[in-house]
């Protein structure tokens, strides 16, 4: 893994050269190798300096999560962390200048290795990432990152990197002081490193006498300006649900008041707490392992030959169609965007132009690249233009009749092998496929709005959807850099079905006399992105009404909650309060200010004097989603807990700290969850009765 | 238990807590010396009879550090045998000093104590002493720490006090203060002098009698940005999830002013008063300390007063005058609402919105203020109360002799 070579003038190179098929990560082998070589280096008394570099495209991608996942005791974690600290301290205190050549992506533990060096040179390639993303997986930079970075760039400057896990390209890294120099090529990088050896100081500032934190100490005026605000902002964002950012702040606050060696002990304690924290383990499982499985094609039928997707036809140039056109063209796929009038398709294409302009503004795109992307989008009102498409995505209004018409029209033109995907969010695919002459080519692709931002695509298999159709769609999703889950057909499939329960429960709470602000705060404090009533307003109350009516038409009056139906109908038909789009819904939307909860709610619902605890409301809002997900699992709409967990977090904003709807049940403990469900069912209704199979369910092997 | 007699109470005028404030050139030790000397001289006191000097002081660092009470006793020329101790109960420190002294005298272990407080906010700014509650992320996040201004706004939100409500209160405070001064109602204010005896300040400097609803309306809410941009509103809502938005109504014009000042009272047993020929002015009837939710923080006065009333078997109706520290307008309005108190008995000569609130000194200043006014109106009973950081509240009830 490591090679030690002598370059000119007694400068040594420590070269990382691991197996080519695996990115460099910090695991036991890495630590062992590093220890061995640093021991050797310590004995090189005549060494002028050391350069650490990588033979890979990346420097080091981070710590090995599998290693952390398997850590099961405080002692084990502390032993591991101390070993890493010890070897990094040896590098830092060699008494010889040490330069790190960040010749590629350098993340997490990898970047922490470079922080223990005395000088960091990056490579000028905007694709490379530098930063400390640990917090996004519920961890903290446990190899000294919480201590060395703020000592290097100051408390305030380090906060976005440590607390939000911000990663940047080398240019920005230079600007923020994460690295000291940029080189244009690998050759120049080495020359610059050797030159640096001649001039840099052979110890880090924090090992020197009289060191003070750049920008101000913790116990100083500036410390009192920055830290309380950072803590409040952290609490405001996490509502106390995430331990990692809290521990990171404590590392900064406590660690920066003591010498570096003692500071590392403090970091070790807080790191260990996180590694062993059940929420962290769930976050890592879902957000890293499961997400990667989904991204890397775990669902793809293995025996289907990959077919290149050159051209995709999109039916409907509204918000969704336009968004799908954008992400497709951005991935280099030719797009045919069709709607009824030229005006509509022009508007649809303009959506891409606007997004690209924004990217240019932010210097993330060149004007040339913009025109290349836009040139890929062909607009049309003529269905004939779909004839050589590999995939058609239908994104017209949620109306069976219209969908049937366009399906027939399109199938008359396209080849027998072209896959037809409907971007419906609620209508069962099998039913829609009945209008198709080739139901095996018919499949559901549920995109989320706004398409350019939302990472999930829910693939829905109709009864007759073929393996070829599935494979092609998954290849397409991979190409547009989204994450798929694959579900079986059913009303609302998985995501819409479960997400609706959140909104409905919000309205149920209103009907139970719970104060509107309490409902909304409980939603947010539980970790959902917005309160349920705000969501209802965003998706629009008449859409909910529409879905309820459609359900009644399809399944009968008994299939929907009558109270909910009455309330929603009243809001839509009597009050004309449709949500944000009509300027009034559960909220009021003044043109000159922020939205606020409508007084109408207090008039229409009798708000009781005795309000439940926020914990109680939070429980209702989260539990109902997990219970509905369990039903999806039972009905085989979901075939794995993995897809349920991934889809819930990146699809409808179920809080990440839970690891998803099923991991949440595990976190609560199945027994406790079941007991709480029964309690909720007694108090609020049978919708909380847990499915009977819960007692012997095992979500993950 | 022994009776505790208030023999005297003095205070400095309050100077603006700014570099151009008239007391900015006076060190806190000088302010302390001024009141200690004054109470000694006014009572022709042989200081060797004093058992202890207790001073409240919130920011006990730099020149207010190192137990300023003992240094001040020495600097005021008190007998070497007089001990000194400095305490910090945040804004309640000055009154806490009185209550601590009272306990010691009641127990019979002490006979005569000088107690009060000092704070030069222009020289040792508020927050200079730091504090884990505010800055330690583990502590702040676990306990939902928010700055007091947000707490005051939260009270206004929950009690539906509008900006006009709190501003009107502030205008009244200024008016009452102006009348009180124009009629020279304050007997116990000691001028602060320089080494040559030139008077630096003999009248409260912070007042703005010209304040009107219109002029206050110009002021931007002080805690809006802090609450909305730095997340403190959301922290408050973790504890108060029934609140949709916090109504930020407080600003420099309806909150207590930042000022410099010092105050002390002379407390002792009946016996020592007789022996030394001291003239009793009032008796300490009872006192109390409570602690409430630290996030809303400033609702302590009502329960503290309830407790103090209960201890001495009195009702609110038995109290003639109430001095409540005007930390923020909503604190007083909330107190009135919760106690169903008679507004005409409260802060009849204005309060900290007009005069300012020299943190550690205020409690003992309010004791002197209510005592002066009881004598002026020839009334009997007075109650002093302050809201305190951390959710605490303090109260003392006195009765004239």
Short recap of the structure:
The complex is a heterodimer of chains A (701) and B (401). Helix content of chain A is 49%, strand content 12%. Chain A has 701 residues and is an alpha/beta fold.
Your description of this structure?
The complex is a heterodimer of chains A (701) and B (401). With 701 residues, chain A is an alpha/beta fold. Chain A has 3 domains: 2-276, Alpha-Beta Complex (2-enoyl-CoA Hydratase, Chain A, domain 1), CATH 3.90.226; 311-490, Rossmann fold (3-Layer(aba) Sandwich); 496-636 and 638-696, N-(1-d-carboxylethyl)-l-norvaline Dehydrogenase, domain 2, CATH 1.10.1040. Chain A is built from 28 helices and 21 strands. In chain A, the strands form 5 sheets. An 8-stranded mixed sheet of chain A has the order 14-13-12-15-16-17-18-19, sandwiched between helices. A 6-stranded mixed sheet of chain A has the order 1-2-4-6-8-11, sandwiched between helices. In chain A, helix 10 runs antiparallel to helix 11 and helix 27 crosses helix 28 (670-684). Chain A is globular, with a radius of gyration of 28 Å. The model of chain A has no long low-confidence stretch (mean pLDDT 95). The longest helix of chain B is centred in the middle third of the chain and has 20 residues, at 163-182. Classes of the chains: A alpha/beta (701), B alpha/beta (401). Chains A and B meet through helix 9, helix 10, helix 20 and strand 21 of A and helix 5 and helix 10 of B.
């Amino acid at each position: 893994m490591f090679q030690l070579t002598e370059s000119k003038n007694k400068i040594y190179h420590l070269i990382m050269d691991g197996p080519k098929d695996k990115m460099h990560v910090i695991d036991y082998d890495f630590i062992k190798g590093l220890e061995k070589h640093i021991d050797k280096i310590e004995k090189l008394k005549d060494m002028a300096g050391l350069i650490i570099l990588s033979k890979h495209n990346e420097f080091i991608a981070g710590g090995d999560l599998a290693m952390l996942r398997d850590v099961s005791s405080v002692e084990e974690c502390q032993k591991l962390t101390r070993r890493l600290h010890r070897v990094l301290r040896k590098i830092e205190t060699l008494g010889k200048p040490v330069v790190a050549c960040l010749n590629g992506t350098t993340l997490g533990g990898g970047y922490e290795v470079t922080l223990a060096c005395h000088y960091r040179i990056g490579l000028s390639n905007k694709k490379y990432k530098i930063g400390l993303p640990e917090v996004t997986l519920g961890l903290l930079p446990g190899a000294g990152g919480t201590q060395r970075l703020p000592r290097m760039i100051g408390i305030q400057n380090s906060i976005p990197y440590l607390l939000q896990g911000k990663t940047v390209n080398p240019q920005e890294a230079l600007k923020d002081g994460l690295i000291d120099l940029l080189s244009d090529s690998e050759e120049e990088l080495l020359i610059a490193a050797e030159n640096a050896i001649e001039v840099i100081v052979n110890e880090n500032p924090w090992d020197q006498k009289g060191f003070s934190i750049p920008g101000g100490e913790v116990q100083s005026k500036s410390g009192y300006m920055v830290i309380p605000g950072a803590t409040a902002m952290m609490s405001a964002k996490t509502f106390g649900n995430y331990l990692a950012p809290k521990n990171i702040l404590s590392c900064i606050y406590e660690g920066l008041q003591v010498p570096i060696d003692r500071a590392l002990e403090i970091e070790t304690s807080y790191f260990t707490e996180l590694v062993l924290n059940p929420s962290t383990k769930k976050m890592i499982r879902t957000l890293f392992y499961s997400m990667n499985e989904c991204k890397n094609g775990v669902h793809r039928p293995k025996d289907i030959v990959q077919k290149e997707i050159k051209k995709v036809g999109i039916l409907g140039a509204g918000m969704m169609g336009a968004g799908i056109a954008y992400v497709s063209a951005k991935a280099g796929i030719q797009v045919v965007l069709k709607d009824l009038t030229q005006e509509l398709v022009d508007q649809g294409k303009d959506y891409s132009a606007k997004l690209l302009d924004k990217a240019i503004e932010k210097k993330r795109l060149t004007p040339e690249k913009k025109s290349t992307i836009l040139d890929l989008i062909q607009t049309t009102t003529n269905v004939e233009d779909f004839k050589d498409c590999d995939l058609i995505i239908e994104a017209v209004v949620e109306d069976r009749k219209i969908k049937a018409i366009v399906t027939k029209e399109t199938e008359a033109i396209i080849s027998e092998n072209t896959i037809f995907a409907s971007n419906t969010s609620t209508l069962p695919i099998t039913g829609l496929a009945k209008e198709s002459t080739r139901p095996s080519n018919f499949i559901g692709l549920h995109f989320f709005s706004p398409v350019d931002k939302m990472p999930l695509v829910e693939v829905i298999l109709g009864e007759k959807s073929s393996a070829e159709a599935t494979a092609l769609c998954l290849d397409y999703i991979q190409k547009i850099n989204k994450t798929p889950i694959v579900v079986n057909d059913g009303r609302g499939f998985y995501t819409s079905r479960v997400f609706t329960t959140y909104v409905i429960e919000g309205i149920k709470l209103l009907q139970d006399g719970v104060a509107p602000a309490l409902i909304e705060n409980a939603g947010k404090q539980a970790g959902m992105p917005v309160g349920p009533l705000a969501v209802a307003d965003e998706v629009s109350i008449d859409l909910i009404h529409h879905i309820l009516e459609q359900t009644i038409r399809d399944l009968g009056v008994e299939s929907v909650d009558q109270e909910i139906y009455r309330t929603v109908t009243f809001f839509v038909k009597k009050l004309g309060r449709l949500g944000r789009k009509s300027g009034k819904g559960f909220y009021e939307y003044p043109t000159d200010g922020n939205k606020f909860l409508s007084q109408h709610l207090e008039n229409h619902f009798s708000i009781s004097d005795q309000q439940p605890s926020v914990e109680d409301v939070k429980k209702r809002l989260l539990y109902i989603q997990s219970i509905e997900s369990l039903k999806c699992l039972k009905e085989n709409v979901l075939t794995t807990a993995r897809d349920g967990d991934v889809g819930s977090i990146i699809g409808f904003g179920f809080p990440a700290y839970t690891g998803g709807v099923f991991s949440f049940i595990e976190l609560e403990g199945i027994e406790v969850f079941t007991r709480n469900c029964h309690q909720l069912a007694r108090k609020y209704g049978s919708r909380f009765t847990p499915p009977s199979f819960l007692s012997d369910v095992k979500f993950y092997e | 238990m022994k009776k505790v007699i208030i023999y005297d109470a003095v205070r400095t005028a309050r100077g603006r807590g700014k570099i151009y404030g008239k007391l900015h050139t006076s060190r806190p030790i000088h302010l302390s010396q001024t009141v200690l000397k004054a109470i000694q001289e006014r009572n022709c006191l042989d200081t060797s009879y004093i058992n202890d000097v207790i001073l409240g002081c919130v920011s006990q660092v730099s020149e207010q550090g190192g137990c300023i009470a003992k240094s001040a006793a020495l600097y005021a020329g008190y007998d070497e045998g007089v001990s000194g101790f400095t305490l910090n109960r945040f804004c309640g420190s000055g009154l806490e000093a009185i209550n601590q002294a009272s306990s010691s005298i009641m127990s019979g272990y002490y006979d005569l104590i000088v107690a009060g407080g000092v704070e030069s906010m222009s020289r040792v700014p508020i927050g200079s002493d730091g504090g884990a509650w505010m800055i330690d992320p583990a502590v702040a996040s676990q306990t939902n720490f928010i700055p007091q201004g947000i707490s005051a706004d939260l009270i206004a939100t929950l009690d539906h006090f509008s900006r006009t409500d709190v501003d009107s209160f502030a205008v009244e405070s200024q008016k009452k203060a102006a009348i009180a001064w124009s009629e020279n109602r304050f007997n116990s204010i000691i001028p602060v002098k320089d080494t040559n005896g030139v008077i630096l300040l003999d009248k409260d400097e912070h007042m703005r009698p010209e304040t009107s609803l219109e002029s206050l309306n110009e002021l931007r809410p002080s805690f809006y940005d802090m609450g909305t941009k730095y997340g403190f509103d959301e922290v408050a809502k973790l504890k108060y999830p029934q609140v949709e938005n916090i109504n930020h109504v407080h600003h420099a014009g309806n909150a207590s002013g930042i000022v410099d000042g010092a105050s002390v009272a002379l407390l002792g047993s009946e016996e020592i008063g007789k022996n030394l020929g001291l003239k009793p002015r009032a008796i300490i009837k009872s006192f109390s300390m409570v602690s409430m939710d630290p996030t809303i923080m400033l609702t302590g006065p009502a329960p503290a007063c309830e407790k103090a009333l209960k201890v001495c078997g009195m009702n609110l109706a038995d109290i003639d005058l109430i001095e409540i520290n005007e930390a923020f307008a909503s604190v007083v309005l909330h107190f009135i609402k919760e106690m169903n108190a008679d507004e005409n008995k409260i802060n009849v000569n204005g309060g900290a919105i007009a005069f300012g609130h020299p943190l550690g000194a205020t409690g003992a200043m309010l004791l002197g203020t209510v005592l002066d006014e009881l004598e002026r109106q020839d009334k009997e009973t007075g109650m002093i109360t302050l809201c305190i950081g951390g959710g605490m509240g303090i109260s003392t009830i006195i009765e004239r002799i």
